[in-house]
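Two records follow; treat each independently.
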Amino acid sequence: MDTEGLVTHMKPPGPRLVRKEGKSMDENTVMLPKYKCHKEVGALKIKDLIWNVEGTLTIVPEEAGFAPIVVAAKYVHTHDALRPTVGWYFVEYEDGYQSFSPAEAFEKGYTRIPG
């Protein structure tokens, strides 16, 4: 799958600069505040993606013992700009929110909890 242009909303490497209120980017820029992740999530690495005719997406997990996950068409349509690719992670947060994360970003931010 060609992913070029599908994740253009993601920031480029390096610090993200934003302009201060009332100033142009050239006049006065500041780095966004930094946050460290301290939450627990459920996640599976994506082995395969099946785009279904009715608009749903079936995620085949890389890890054995887990059934494929069907993502609702409404979610797929709403999050189309963050279209996942094989090797990314399907992530579910404690509040039930579901998302996708590129492998490099996910693996830098999370360590597997045994059990």
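The next record belongs to a different protein.
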Amino acid sequence: MICEVYLGFAAFQAGSDLQHHLLGLGERNEEFEAKQLMMSYTVDVIASAGLGVEAGSFAQPDGKFRQMVRFTLLRCYEFLSFLPAGSTHNGRRQAQQDADAGPDDLDGHA
């Protein structure tokens, strides 16, 4: 029961941060990518609920925690590329392209 309440609070707090971020974007009439916003929301919920850490992904989109998430996902993707042929779709080549693309383009494959 306590765990469920804490997870709900983490999602509520991240949702509140998302709402404030969207209001700021609206006031400035800025465009945004929904995928990036959802990634920031997801990172904030996981960091808060799972690790008890305030990631602050909306305030710092390229913060340390988000960089660690990208790095970890890339390493998992590279690991999966070593599975037998047919189990992944060009995993090694895609992981190398992601590494060459840089951190800004990595969210498309993570």
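Discussion point: The mean pLDDT is 76. How would you locate this feature using only the token line?
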